Amino acid sequence: xxxxxxxxxxxxxxxxxxxxxxxxxxxxxxxxxxxxxxxxxxxxxxxxxxxxxxxxxxxxxxxxxxxxxxxxxxxxxxxxxxxxxxxxxxxxxxxxxxxxxxxxxxxxxxxxxxxxxxxxxxxxxxxxxxxxxxxxxxxxxxxxxxxxxxxxxxxxxxxxxxxxxxxxxxxxxxxxxxxxxxxxxxxxxxxxxxxxxxxxxxxxxxxxxxxxxxxxxxxxxxxxxxxxxxxxxxxxxxxxxxxxxxxxxxxxxxxxxxxxxxxxxxxxxxxxxxxxxxxxxxxxxxxxxxxxxxxxxxxxxxxxxxxxxxxxxxxxxxxxxxxxxxxxxxxxxxxxxxxxxxxxxxxxx
Length: 349
Fold this sequence. Notes:
Strand order of the largest sheet: 5-2-1-6-7-10-11-12
CATH topology of the largest domain: Rossmann fold
Order of helices and strands: EHEEEHEHEHEEEHEHEHEHHHHHHHH
Shape: globular
Strand content: 5-15%
Number of strands: 12
Number of helices: 15
Mean pLDDT: 94
Number of domains: 2
CATH superfamily of the largest domain: NAD(P)-binding Rossmann-like Domain
CATH class of the largest domain: Alpha Beta
CATH architecture of the largest domain: 3-Layer(aba) Sandwich
């Protein structure tokens, strides 16, 4: 008979599958149920359902090819069945599915359970405010939800290469538990009691990556990239401190903050997209079709949500780089507009 706390991973794309390699190993060491459910939004891959392939071949051939998945990982294509009696829910799903999944789960989650969100993105509410997806999950399910912002590459983590992860958690007991679940010999987990700061750092770094990609596409060189990083990080820190005054400066020095933004400005889908956007003169949708097989890139969506919030608050002038990134993505101004934004940025005076 299985015993101990049950863990469920919701979402079987790259990060959901990658994190399962650590979780499934660590549940065998202590107080957890040895079987970990992962909810799979079923799709046909090579004429077979992905959940069946994962259970039979122990590999996610679509989202994490070449990585052997643990045998105690059970792929389930029914969300309620996957999450039944779960004590810890790990959300690793695209942001667009969060609300609908919470609607399905809200009457079935254990009141003693808690969640961890790997979800990036922001929800623009009807009154012009912004909501974080960790807050959405907590509100809908009536349980605590923490944020976990991952290393830059899911594949590298799954391959066992050295990496770091930052968890935003303000509950000491849950924090210790999450370390036992996620930390491995090659994956160091750092806890910050700053759920909002950790989540926003990992979300806003996509805007820094977009700006770097525009610089690449314009062939402006590494010095201009440094200016983008410098001013993008200043706007990121300013935004987070305005949005959540209790965020600690130390959060920005964890791997979720400055470090991740620097890496993302060189190696990130948003950099590749922005470079292509400048050089090809294609629309966002055309580039997504070529680079991502039609899937939506999150960076331009985040830029739109941030801009709508700044416009609602009348704060565009405080964030000229974030503002011009959105306007470039929407083709309201040419990519060259980023040059004047850097030259005349208020933080450069």
